[in-house]
Amino acid sequence: MKLEMGYIDIKDIQFGAESKVENGVLYVNADEVKKLVLDNEEKIKNVTLDIAKPGESVRITPVKDVIEPRVKVEGRGGIFPGVISGVDTVGSGKTYALRGSAVVTAGKIVGFQEGIIDMSGIGAQYTPFSKLNNLVVVCEPVDGLKQHEYEEAVRFSGFRVACYLGELARELTPDETKVYETCTIKEGLEKYPDLPRIAYVQMLQSQGLLHDTYVYGVDAKKTLSTIMNPTEIMDGAIVSGNCVSACDKNPTYVHMNNPVVHDLFEEHGKTINFVCHILTNENVYLADKQRSSDWSAKLCKLLDLDGVLISQEGFGNPDTDLIMNCKKIEAEGVKTVIITDEYAGRDGKSQSLADADVAADACVTGGNANEYITLPAMDKVIGTTDYVNTIAGGNEHSLHADGSIEIEIQAITGATNETGFNNLSAR
Amino acid sequence: MDFQIITNNPKVKTELEETCNVNYFEISYREILEKVRDMCHGGYKLLSHPLSGSVKPNETPYKSVMVSARKGNADSESIHIIENCMIAFDKFPDLGNKWTPSVLDDFQVIDFYLISGAVGSAI
Questions:
Q1: Which superkingdom, per the lineage (chain B) (predicted)?
Q2: Considering the entire predicted model, what is its pTM?
Q3: Which one is catalytic: A139, A163, A183, A243?
Q4: How far does B25 lie from chain A, in Å, by closest CA?
């Protein structure tokens, strides 16, 4: 399967009379965007739009999702198949992205947990989304709406706005084009007989409402482990419905730009044969864990893989799936590298994961989520800081009178991302 | 029904006690884990992950765990998981948070959603 990704670089974002992209500036007609949200979502009673640019003294909180605007220019299907577009296999043809921009959805879905994006200061260094020109969509629910219904309404609204902006790229000429191509099993064996056969096992957050991920619109907790072409994610085959654990959840933007997939493509045909993308889940019911990890290992064996990278999403419960996958895949004779983050205490000295095994002897970490920092006050807050004391990593002393916040980095969106889509590094 | 739910979440009691075997206790999150640990050592099998949800154990006061309805031989996998969960629990410091009723309600809802997912798989 072959996908041509065209990147149109966005250097600025502004509200304007007409939505368009001109000379690298994304102009947004706010009335059209509000109408788009309200006309399609009766559970939302009011929408507020704002803009947050890199370097500004702006704090966005509570953040629910971050989404990159894209459009399908050629080939089967459309962006977000089974969610916004019809169900059709994506990942081939031509897709354009408004690189450097994002739709950020925000709203008080639950009274804790959702994250912080600071556009400047030390906090900005911890979140990759501070580098983007963000259109922030704050959705207010109709009265009496249940939390999971509110989450769904905000989720769909974010995707609609991202597709609306992505459509502005359809007739443009990309600043950069990259071609991603994978082989069939037989082609790969013939073309790269001497290269190790490597796959990516991605564990999708699927613990329950407000902790969900959707694949082609299907709730991942109701799926068996399966395989995809790695290019399918670039058209939005996987989307986030996850509201919890800001630092190590995968916003939809991360699914679309998953660095494990992109890095494996960089090495494809050179040092490895990137065979496929294996999806599995992280359910709370232990028999589901058993079944899903059995299937991941079975697929690895069936595909005659030499090695896999395994990434998890979240803390605690997923650690058990991570170790089950690692142990069972290694037992099939397939080498594993696990990608996780750590809750190692503020001094970093505690055991990092809630499970462990000797088979997990190759590990990449996204950082220690318990690291404690102070975020300076910002001139402007988009959303509300009413909940800062009660989001993950916050406490009753978190929010100071001057607007500064003392907090564990687990409160920052994307700070310790477990696909490596973050800024922390030992380098 | 081959399972029971050990919980300190009043919402789980209210919503599920008519359809499931719910054992509700007015005890802490850690005491729920202790109770489940003792049950696992006594031969009950763990059926849902005790650290379900990405809400950290020092944030939410609520926890619901599914275990087998009947005792059998001690299950080493169950004991391994619950013991590791207790080690993980103890490394989160008490933040001394005083929750508002609406936040407490959100925590109850999250825990209820999580255990409902396990119930959906179990029946």
A1: Bacteria
A2: 0.95
A3: A243
A4: 21
